[in-house]
Design brief:
alpha+beta; 35 strands; globular
């Protein structure tokens, strides 16, 4: 008893001493927390202060930098004993689940990861992060005896500062609670996304952004037992916490469901005592794998989203529709409460939590044991790069045969296997994540979902695949880097095949380096090798002005890991010769990309990111407010992202655009942008309508109020995959087969072009191979356009009904876009 009293006294004295030296966020910042939006550098300063005052319990780590050079930071908080053994705790956790070799010890230390401010304008949570670490150290030391708490105070610093800077320069003093005040209406693009205008909460699985890629490196080193993603929602919604809504993915265990409920009930006690409203089990489901709650869940954690009322509209305070003033102080207080409550539940249940976590990684009962993927080596490599980011193991097949579900035919089948075929199996610790990412069709327990319902990786990467119930034996990677080529001064041309985005980057690099590059519209054979449509030809005669032509070609090819085929003569064995009209010169296009009001910030950001980070080709962003004043003839191509352009494209603007196209311009319209040209003179777009729509109208009007939301799902496509037919002889389809799996995001449906080229389309009997599509939608999709080109005068309008750049993860669609830019109706360099 005396020993326990002594220990209690020591802890009490430690807490008192800490409280005297450690400043609260308000003391440190010089204003009451919640009365201003704290700039990101000030948040970093506060966390540095916390570490400096208590280095034995707090450790900071910078795990990356944003595009705008702001630091990405983690804080590790625990007891002195735990922090001194932090590396052993981390490794023991990974040993227990089989991620690293060795026998782990029974684990009773829970690892809780709290992620704040993934959406920049949901800014209360970063304020709460500061409050949470302070209260944890000064009031809740007992919980740290058996927990390691990892805090990421701001996942999206660029978005947060964009929002905070706008608010600080706009808001009234004191703040104005009137919903109509300008401080409650963000300008385009808003603070929600990151620098490239991506939603980082949809990027966990695809890791296209630097913030996500950097975070995954650390996340996979730790594999926490609980992960919470803090958010904000509309001003009239009080607070949402777990348990989540249906559908739950089938890999989620009973324990994960049960403990979510236990945590929710613990939160409820605090909220009930304070008189705060909340809701659970609605809206926010656990299906799409790229969220900050689902990704950790599929990695074994208790993954949860917490949503506080507010969002970018709330500012420092706003009067909601119920006449209640919602303040930033309220919002950060609620988030602080749930954050601490989560840590409390982890501490109280640490042994059970870690035991069930270990059980999650036992994957012996999976139906499909292996996924075998076949395709071009560049596509295989692109997929292995994704797997490497998630530290998912893979191998390569042995010569033989494999039976199972054939992704191309959507039925059982058999294929031969070769050493170049990729194999990803579920008999590994992360086997459940493998199932989630690779399964042909995720099981839906409810069609009312918050996001897309299909994302199957083989379709997204354009690979043939077999899902096998047998474990396929593998060997190590047989692919090797392509050796440096040898300059061939006797070659009439260097030829490079056209199959992937790697070829596209190589071509874009050459064009910007002032090389003259051609492509063939017909197959040809030279030196006993046949080259398909789209093959690139860099002839010596076209490039007489390039000094050290051969050496430079070899250097650029080596940089892009491309195989150069030196061809000695332009006289082909069969097919077009190099001087044929079917071997066309690629004229370096001058591209204008619409941005600003009317464009979807996400769609613009996807394209911006694609050109800067993936293709490395310069474009000019043109604000929609300036479009009527600019000289379109300065550009060869105008790209319209998904958006809502009804106020922009009046008759005068349509006529201006039409005249530019007729003079040789090329318009590329994506998704919602097509509406601006539907039914317009000279544009051949027509919306498809379903006869069933009118037949069901009377029944819909009689439908009960409570049934209307579910009935509406019959009219929805929630991200479903369809197999389309492809005209692979059209330049827009070079590098593709005669079919393509497209991700449809909405019910938008356009008829086939009567005057033009239907490059990809759905035929007489469209069927979704994966994901949910309402029964009323299917008749509208019959004989509908996916991608098409319509010549208008000397130029073309290119229609992309499905947005292949959506979240930048549908890798197999990107070559259509490159082809549209460089191959389709490639006119003279100057209009």
């Amino acid at each position: 008893m005396r020993h326990k009293l002594l220990l209690f006294s020591t802890l009490l004295l430690t807490s008192i001493a800490l409280a005297q030296s450690l400043q609260s966020p308000s003391q440190f910042l010089g204003y009451d927390i919640g009365t201003k939006f704290t700039r990101h550098h000030e948040v970093v300063d506060y966390f540095n202060h916390v570490q400096s005052e208590n280095p034995k319990q707090v450790k900071l780590e910078t795990y990356g930098k944003t595009n705008e050079r702001r630091p990405l930071m983690l804080a590790y908080i625990s007891s002195e004993e735990n922090l001194s053994n932090i590396e052993d705790i981390r490794k023991n956790n990974l040993k227990n689940i089989g991620i690293i070799k060795g026998d782990g010890n029974p684990n009773d230390i829970a690892i809780v990861w709290l992620s704040y401010n993934v959406h920049g304008n949901e800014a209360s949570s970063t304020e709460a992060a500061m409050s949470t670490i302070y209260k944890l150290l000064t009031e809740k030391q007992d919980w740290l005896k058996n927990t390691v708490v990892i805090i990421d105070p701001c996942i999206n610093p660029d978005g947060r500062d964009r929002y905070g800077n706008w608010f600080n320069e706009t808001a009234s003093l004191p703040y104005n609670i009137d919903q109509n005040a300008s401080e409650h209406h963000e300008p385009w693009p808003g603070g929600r996304p990151n620098h490239y205008l991506f939603d980082l909460n949809r990027d966990w699985a695809w890791a296209t952004q630097v913030e996500s890629a950097s975070r995954l490196k650390v996340y996979n080193k730790w594999m926490p037992h609980i992960h919470v993603d803090f958010h904000e929602q509309g001003i009239n919604e009080p607070y949402y916490f777990a348990p989540a809504a249906e559908p739950f993915h089938e890999v989620i265990t009973d324990w994960q469901r049960e403990f979510q409920t236990q945590i929710g009930k613990n939160h409820a006690q605090y909220f009930d005592a304070a008189g705060w409203l909340y809701f659970t089990r609605e809206r926010f489901d656990l299906l799409y794998p790229s969220y900050g709650d689902t990704y950790p869940t599929y990695m074994g954690a208790i993954g949860m989203t917490y949503e506080q009322a507010g969002h970018g509209r709330a500012g420092l305070g706003i009067l909601n529709d119920e006449g209640i003033e919602l303040t930033l102080v309220d919002r950060l207080t609620h988030h602080t409460t749930t954050g601490l409550s989560t840590i409390e539940m982890a501490s109280k249940n640490a042994t059970k939590l870690t035991s069930e976590f270990k059980t999650f990684f036992q994957n012996t009962k999976m139906v499909y044991k292996s996924y075998v993927l076949k395709g071009h080596k560049d596509k295989i490599e692109a997929l292995t790069n994704l797997l490497d980011q998630h530290e998912i193991a893979y191998g390569f097949a042995r010569n033989g045969k494999v039976s199972g579900y054939d992704y191309t035919s959507s039925k059982e089948g058999q294929k031969e296997t070769f050493s170049k075929d990729l194999v990803v199996s579920t008999n590994q610790p992360k086997g459940k994540m493998v199932k989630v990412l690779f399964e042909p069709n995720a099981k839906l327990s409810d069609s009312l979902t918050y996001d897309i319902t299909a994302w199957s990786v083989p379709y997204a990467y354009g690979l043939d695949a077999i899902a096998s119930k047998a474990l396929v034996q593998t060997d190590p990677n047989i692919y090797k880097s392509i050796p440096r080529g040898i300059p061939n001064s006797g070659a009439a041309a260097y030829v490079v095949e056209w199959n992937s985005m790697k070829d596209a980057r190589f071509m874009a690099d050459l064009v910007q380096a002032k090389f003259k590059v051609r492509f063939t519209e017909k197959p040809f054979t030279a030196q006993d090798k046949t080259f398909d449509r789209g093959t690139l030809l860099i002839t010596r005669g076209d490039n007489k002005g390039i000094k050290n032509f051969d050496n430079k070609m070899v250097d650029i090819a080596f940089t892009h890991n491309r195989v150069l085929h030196p061809i000695n003569s332009g006289f082909s064995t069969s097919g077009p010769d190099f001087g044929s009209p079917d071997v066309k010169l690629i004229n370096a296009p001058k591209i204008a990309l619409l941005s600003g009001e009317g464009t979807s910030p996400y769609s613009y950001g996807e394209l911006w990111h694609f050109f800067e980070k993936q293709l490395s080709y310069a474009v000019t962003s043109v604000n929609t407010n300036d479009l009527s004043n600019i000289k379109l003839s300065n550009y060869n191509i105008l790209i319209m992202p998904n958006g809502y352009y009804s106020s922009l494209f009046n008759d005068a603007m349509i006529d201006k655009l039409k005249n530019w196209i007729k003079s040789g311009g090329k318009l590329i319209a994506i998704d919602g942008a097509l509406k601006s040209f539907t039914g317009k003179t000279d544009f051949g777009l027509k919306r498809n309508e379903s006869k069933e729509d009118s037949l069901d109208k009377d029944a819909d009007m009689r439908l009960k109020y409570a049934d209307r939301e579910r009935q509406n799902t019959k009219n929805l496509i929630t991200g479903a995959i369809f197999k389309s037919d492809v005209d692979d002889t059209h330049p827009m389809a070079f590098g593709y087969d005669d079919h393509y799996f497209t991700l449809k995001l909405s019910d938008s449906s356009y008829g086939l072009l009567e005057k033009g080229y239907n490059v990809a389309y759905l035929g007489e009997s469209p069927k979704n191979v994966s994901g949910f599509a309402g029964q009323r939608i299917m008749p509208k999709l019959k004989n509908s356009l996916i991608f098409g080109e319509q010549p208008i005068g000397k130029g073309s309008a290119i229609y992309m009904v499905d947005n292949i750049m959506f979240r930048s993860f549908w890798e197999n669609g990107k070559l259509f876009f490159v082809n549209a830019i460089f191959f389709v109706n490639n006119n003279l360099a100057e209009l």
